Amino acid sequence: MSETVKYVLDESRIPKAWYNLVADLPRPPAPVLHPGTLQPVGPDDLAPLFPMALIAQEVSTEREIEIPAPVRTVYRQWRPAPLHRARRLERALDTPARIFYKYEGVSPAGSHKPNTAVAQAFYNKEAGVRRLTTETGAGQWGSALAYAGATFGLDVQVFMVRVSFDQKPYRKAAMEAWGARCVASPSRETNAGRAVLAEQPDTTGSLGIAISEAVEVAAQHDDTKYALGSVLNHVLLHQTVIGLEAMAQMEMADAYPDIVVGCTGGGSNFAGIAFPFIGAGLRGGAKPRVIACEPAACPSLTRGRYAYDFGDTGHLTPLVKMHTLGSGFIPPGFHAGGLRYHGMAPLVSLVQELGLIESRAYPQIACFEAGLQFARSEGIIPAPEANHAVRGAIDEALACKRDGQARTILFNLCGHGNFDMQAYIDFQAGRLTDSPYDESALQSALAALPKVA
Ligand SMILES: *Cc1c(COP(=O)(O)O)cnc(C)c1O
Prior knowledge:
By secondary structure, the chain is of the alpha/beta class. It has 19 helices and 15 strands.
């Protein structure tokens, strides 16, 4: 008997529409506010940053939004992504649980991020945009957008958080291989970057600062727009291809999840796997438990406040209502760079407020232990971010062993770790530590939240 079972869909089964959870929620998301007036923003306020098609998706209440044919054509390069049954892992854990994982590491950039990068590049190209700016932390989003820019003939400029720029030369090399320009942030190319450097010349940078830089360049140039790799409604929307495909594949396996697990940085891959299942539950179907797994060092869902906050450090972005640690919060260093954002997607925050999901925070060593156990049984080395979902799935499988229940667990393996081997080197050398975040720094970042009536 073969050890792993892989469920593969034909190309014709790539979803024809993305799924918009807003259509099925019992209450609408809170409006996005203008940073100056604190009034709800209109489409014109966002037009300097995003093409109209994406702004329309950001506020859409339609359940299904058609995926344009050219986007589906590009998706065909790696979609439908495989769904695997983790039989060897099940045996290693000696659990009665059935564990399935959707594998998004098969994309050219090695993660789920091209699902939205390709769509965003397409709509920008259609709108006559010549260049996209963006920020990147660990480098996954920058490489996904660089790849998508190459596919649709757009220039891409990436502001990469200084500490990752210095530590992850391969990610920068990948972006450059796809033709993008990658500079360390803070840079001397923007007012936001120069202001930070004037005060802290040796800063390691942060995602919030890099966002300020990318937004500033886009706002100042007519031919340039900005692309964000997570958090926003339209980004989560594009990621729902993950869960929609997984639904069809679970059907092939003659199974339905009792538990759905994903890791959360800004919330996009989690929304991608979970929202189609949550929506089916809201429409009267089975309601799996849905679990968001985040890093203990940057715990926005489990420790943040549900409040209006800025998306960036420089306070150039609109205010969104989300679980936030405060835009001034800088998490301690840890290896899942893609999970170091101070806020959570407004839609993921809302579904937590509505009691539709659970959240859990895990320290990094426990996540790397899970990642190695996964690699040794299933063969794929997960991205450090994905290890949080692996930890969550393994913990649920161990709970099944304790109570003797054969539950079905589905998790999203959002990317491979082939560019992140330094993290595994450090872990295996015993050099990783679980540094807690600074509670007083969190309290002062929360005290500085904007006052919104
Ligand atoms: C970017 C990234 C994340 C975090 O972003 P989400 O929007 O929360 O998905 C997680 N895993 C991988 C592999 C990433 O590249």
